[in-house]
Amino acid sequence: MLTVTAIANVHNTFPVEHVVIGGMLATISLIISLSMAEVLVESEWWNRWASNTLDICNTPLLVVFAAIVTFKVLLIL
Questions:
Q1: What is the pLDDT tens value at each position of the chain, 77 positions in all?
Q2: Number of independent structural domains in the chain
Q3: Which of 7, 20, 26, 40 would bridge with 64, disulfide CB 3.0–4.6 Å?
């Protein structure tokens, strides 16, 4: 019974550091993905499949980046 009580009293907090690290990873991934798209446009490997794949990868990253910027602006105001 003591073990159950001890486990029930533990508070799992979600540290802000995890959110910051996730935002940094999303931003770095977006920069790399957009850079790859710019490089691939001029290469012979650019085709419709490559374009669609990069668009699918970039769209959620752009949404996350926009959310990061929005929250940063709202926190400053």
A1: 445 455 555 555 666 677 777 888 888 999 998 898 888 888 887 888 888 888 888 999 999 899 888 888 888 76
A2: 1
A3: 26
Tokens of 33: 């993905």
Measured CA to CA, the distance from residue 28 to residue 44 in angstroms comes to 26
Write the DSSP assignment of 23-48 as a string of letters: HHHHHHHHHHHHHHHHHHHTSTT--H
The angle formed by the CA atoms of residues 29, 43 and 37, to the nearest 5 degrees, is 20
Residue 70 sits in which domain range?
A: 23-76
- Quick one: which H or E segment has residue 59? helix 48-76
